[in-house]
Structure formats: C-alpha cells, structure tokens
C-alpha cells in the first residue's frame, strides 16, 4: 500500500464511522457508570475483569470498599454487580426494600432452568412457586418448630462421637457423613445405618458441577448451547445433559430411599411425613422441598464444623477455656445438651465466633433487582446482581477488632453473652426474604456438635517425623461455598471416663 496517497472521503468515513460509534458507546457507558454506586473504573467494554481476581474476590471487594465506600459497583461485559459491604446497607435494601431485592439474577435463573436445577428454591425467581416451597420448608425450621429435631440432632452427635472414637483418620469424611446422616434422618426418616457415603458423594458432585455451570455465563446465550459437540467450543450440549441428569438424581435418589424405608415400615417421623400429611402438598413439591434441605444443609454445616477443628488447633487457649466451662457446668457423667446452652456462654461464644471467622458462603447467594431503584442518590439498575460481602462485614476491624484472630471473648461481658456486639448470625445467613431458612437448625447443630466434641476429645496439632507440632493455617477454597483447605490434626479421647461416656451414650435407636 502507498501511504503517501491521499484518502478519499468514502475511505475517511469508513475509518471514522466505527470509531465515532465506539466513542459514543463509550460515552454512554461512562455516563451510566457514573450514576451507579462508585467503584474502580475498569477498562472500556470489558469493565472490571482485571480488577477482580478468581481467588477469594471477597477480600478484594473489601479493599475496594475501603477506598470507595460501603456500597460499590463493578461491571463485567456491561453486567452490573453491586456489592454491599456494611450491615446497614444490607438492612436498607434487603430488609426495608425486600419487594425489590428478593429475586435471583436472571442469569442464575436461566442457567438453573437449562441445567434442570430450577426445582431448587435457592435459585428460583421471587414469585408464587418460591413462596410455596419456602413456606413448607419454614414450617419445619422456624423457631417455634425447630425444637422437634433436638433429639435427632443429639442422636446424630452421639453417633458422630462414636465414629470419631473408632477412627479419626479421615475427619472430612466422618464429619460430612455424620451431618448427612442426621439431615437424611430428619428429612426423610431414613435410619442412619441406611445412609452411606454415596449420598455425600452425590451432594459433592452436585455442588461442584452446579458451581461450574454458574461460572459460565455464556450459557445464557441460546446459540452457544446449540453449538454441535464436534465444533470447537461445542462441549456444552454434553455438559448440559450431564448436569440435567445430576439434578434429577439429586432430586429423586433420597426420596426413593425414603419410600423404600416407608414401605419397609422402618422410617421415623420426618419432614417428608409431615409434608405428605399436609393437605396442599403434592409429591413433586415435597420432593423439591426435601431435596433442597440436603443440598443446602450438609456442606454448609459440615464445612463450618471443619473450620472449628482448624480453629481449635491454632487457638488451644480457646479450646481449654471451653473444656473448663463444660467440666464445671455439665460434669463428667453426661454429654452436653442443647438445653445447656444458656449455662454455657463461652461455648455459645465459640459458635458465634466460628460463624464470624469462617464464612462458608463469603458472598452469600446473589440477589437480583426486579425494578430500577435509587439508593443514596445512586441508580440501582433493573436486573443488576446484588451481593452481600459477608466475609467483608464479618472481618471489618471496626466491628470486630483483630478480625483474623479467633476470639470468642469478644461476644462476652461479665460472663454473659454481650447483646451489644453485632451478632454474626444476622449476616452469615444472608438477609431479607431470602435469608437462610435453616439458620436456627444450623446454629443448633453447630452448638451440640462443638460442645460434645470439646467435652470428650482434645483437638491437637499433628506432629512431624521429628516430633514437632505441625502448625495449621486457616486457608480456604474459593467459590460459592468456601471450605478450609486440608490440614493435619490429631484427635484424642480426653480420658477413659470420656471414652465410656461416648460408648454408653449410644442408645439402641442411634444406629
Ligand atoms: C452454617 C450453616 C449455613 C450457612 C452459613 C448458610 C448460609 C446461607 C446463605 C448465606 C444463604 C443465602 C441467603 C440470601 O439469599 O440472602 C442461604 C440460603 C439458603 N439456605 Fe442456608 N446456610 C446454612 C445452613 C443451612 C441449612 C442447615 C439448611 C436446611 C435446613 C439451609 C437451607 C437454605 C435454603 C433452602 C436457602 C435458600 C433460601 C431462599 O432462596 O429463599 N441452609 N443459606
């Protein structure tokens, strides 16, 4: 090409036209960005892709909020996400304006539909179907009724202690299987001995696969889903078929096992039997409501419990104080019960500190904005994704000094729970109309398992070949659910009387 040749007017227009269009588009985006809550500028068209790391983005959101304020916005490929980094903003939007902020984002709903997971209340859009599911679940878990599960929870704990006494070499497996057995028993009436690790594996697979699906927003584009499998980028059809099968298995498998137990006549009273007795509940609805309990309840509670074990190794002084309280209040002749909680403020404070320190859902579950709104003068666009930075709020040094340390004492005053300290449970379980319906049950589960484990076991560091203790760090995985990364530990029964207590506490119906 001869660059000395002058361009004619058509050529000039051909070059300028796309540039002018791009510039107008850029100005429009800039104008829209300025009316949103503040946040890093990002790059044209791509937005903040380079500002937000894949690994633990909640830590970066917290840093950004130090610079821009408690409500920040970021955008990726023009999809706006607003992140709430203070309890007051969460309260203003999710509680006070709950009619606007109670749905799930459109992309989440679309992906749930195409992967077959839309039966799960967690991802349903706000509306009548969600309301019907939620009401049935809540009937079984609200403060007035959650007490009906106390004895099953205690029974589950006794089984857990016995399993640890037998073999504590695979803590992750033992904890998850125990929490799964208790929830299967409560939900379906299935006896604990009929629950095997296959169910835990199924839930695991469901968690991993569904997280992978939600990570691929391109799936919301119908043409991407239609690319044949032999084309480059055409793996989605096969993947989608796999996800749909998994969703169906998660919905059906435990229910089938429950029906089997019903038919054999060895099922105990359960949420399934409660719901099937209810006049307005059809079988499909009961299946969905019960399956969601397992999908949402097992990994969250067992993941939090594993973090407790990690905390006890790195904070032996906390463990010792908890054990001293248990010795004084409960004594050596029995195991603790849920009714002991008011007399065990230190152990209660350990549970609160655990919910603050380890956040199993660090960014909660995304909410959507159903209609354009204005907040503190900012535009909250229709369809924006709104997230709570649960980790950020519960690690705010102004609310909780020295936030990375595990200090149950921060919740105590004059030997009692200090009501003036912000309760982590009011954020750790989300907020508004979508707040976790299993929260009272989860806190009870954590309390009874933590109190019982401290009562009879010592949790200590593992030792290396030279006999030196191996230090443990609180390192976590990234994702919708965040768990502690594998760590080494040693679990020892505290005394021969503790051993007899565990053995004798197991009753006939426990197995
Ligand atoms: C430590 C344990 C748990 C934690 C930290 C936790 C946390 C959460 C969070 C952050 C949400 C999202 C709330 C929102 O959208 O704002 C949620 C939703 C949910 N959780 Fe939990 N959860 C736990 C245990 C449980 C248990 C034991 C169950 C079942 C009994 C359960 C059932 C659900 C359900 C069904 C939803 C969806 C609610 C809806 O979309 O309306 N969770 N949970």
From TrEMBL:
Keywords assigned: Heme, Iron, Membrane, Metal-binding, Monooxygenase, Oxidoreductase, Transmembrane, Transmembrane helix
SUPFAM superfamilies noted in UniProt: Cytochrome P450
Cofactor: heme
Family annotation (Gene3D superfamilies): Cytochrome P450 (1.10.630.10)
Pathway of action: Secondary metabolite biosynthesis
Pfam entry (one): p450
UniProt subcellular location: Membrane
Listed InterPro entries: Cyt_P450 (IPR001128), Cyt_P450_CS (IPR017972), Cyt_P450_E_grp-I (IPR002401), Cyt_P450_sf (IPR036396), Cytochrome_P450_fung (IPR050364)
GO cellular component: membrane
GO terms, molecular function: heme binding; iron ion binding; monooxygenase activity; oxidoreductase activity, acting on paired donors, with incorporation or reduction of molecular oxygen
Lipid bilayer topology: Single-pass membrane protein
Subcellular location, principal: membrane
Entry's transmembrane regions: 6-27
Binding sites annotated in the UniProt record for heme: 436
Family per similarity comment: Belongs to the cytochrome P450 family.
The protein's name in its UniProt record: Cytochrome P450
Source organism (scientific name): Trametes cubensis
């Amino acid at each position: 090409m001869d660059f000395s040749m002058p361009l004619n007017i058509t050529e000039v227009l051909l070059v300028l036209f796309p540039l002018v269009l791009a510039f107008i588009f850029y100005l429009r985006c800039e104008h829209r960005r300025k009316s949103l809550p503040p946040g890093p500028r990002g790059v044209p068209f791509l937005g903040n892709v380079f500002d937000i790391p894949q690994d633990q983005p909640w830590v970066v959101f917290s840093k950004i909020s130090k610079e821009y304020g408690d409500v920040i916005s970021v955008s990726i490929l023009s999809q706006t996400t607003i992140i709430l980094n203070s309890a007051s903003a969460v309260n203003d939007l999710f509680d006070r304006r709950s009619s606007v902020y109670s749905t799930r984002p459109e992309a989440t709903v679309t992906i749930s539909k195409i992967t077959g997971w839309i039966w799960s209340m967690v991802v349903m859009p706000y509306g009548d179907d969600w309301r019907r599911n939620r009401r049935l679940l809540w009937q079984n878990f609200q403060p007035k009724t959650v007490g009906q599960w106390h004895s099953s929870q205690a029974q589950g704990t006794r089984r857990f202690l016995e399993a640890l006494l037998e073999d504590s070499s695979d803590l992750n497996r033992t904890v998850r299987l125990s929490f799964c057995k208790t929830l299967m028993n409560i939900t379906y009436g299935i006896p604990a001995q009929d629950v095997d690790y296959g169910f835990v594996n199924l839930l695991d697979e469901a968690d991993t696969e569904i997280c992978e699906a939600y990570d691929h927003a391109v799936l919301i584009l119908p043409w991407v889903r239609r690319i044949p499998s032999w084309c480059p980028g055409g793996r989605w059809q096969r993947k989608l078929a796999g996800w749909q099968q998994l969703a169906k298995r998660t919905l059906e498998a435990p229910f089938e096992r429950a029906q089997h137990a019903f038919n054999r006549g060895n099922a105990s009273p359960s949420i399934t039997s409660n719901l099937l007795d209810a006049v307005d509940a059809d079988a499909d609805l009961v299946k969905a409501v019960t399956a969601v309990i397992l999908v949402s309840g097992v990994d969250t509670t067992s993941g939090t419990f594993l973090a407790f074990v990690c905390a006890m190794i790195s904070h032996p002084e906390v463990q010792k104080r908890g054990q001293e309280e248990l010795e004084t209040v409960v004594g050596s002749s029995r195991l603790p019960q849920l009714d002991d909680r008011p007399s065990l403020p230190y152990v209660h404070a350990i549970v609160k500190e655990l919910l603050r320190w380890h956040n199993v859902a660090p960014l909660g579950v995304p909410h959507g904005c159903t209609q354009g709104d204005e907040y503190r003068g900012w535009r909250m666009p229709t369809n924006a994704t709104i997230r709570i930075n649960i980790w950020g709020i519960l690690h705010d040094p102004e609310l909780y000094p020295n936030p990375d340390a595990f200090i149950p004492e921060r919740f105590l005053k004059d030997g009692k729970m200090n009501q003036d300290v912000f309760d982590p449970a009011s954020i750790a379980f989300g907020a508004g109309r979508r707040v976790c319906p299993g929260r009272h049950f989860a806190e009870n589960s954590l309390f009874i398992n933590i109190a019982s484990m401290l009562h009879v076991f010592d949790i200590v560091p593992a030792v290396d070949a030279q006999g030196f203790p191996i230090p443990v760090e609180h390192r976590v995985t990234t994702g919708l659910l965040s768990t502690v990364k594998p760590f080494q530990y040693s679990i020892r029964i505290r005394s021969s009387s503790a051993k007899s207590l565990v053995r004798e506490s197991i009753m006939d119906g426990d197995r």
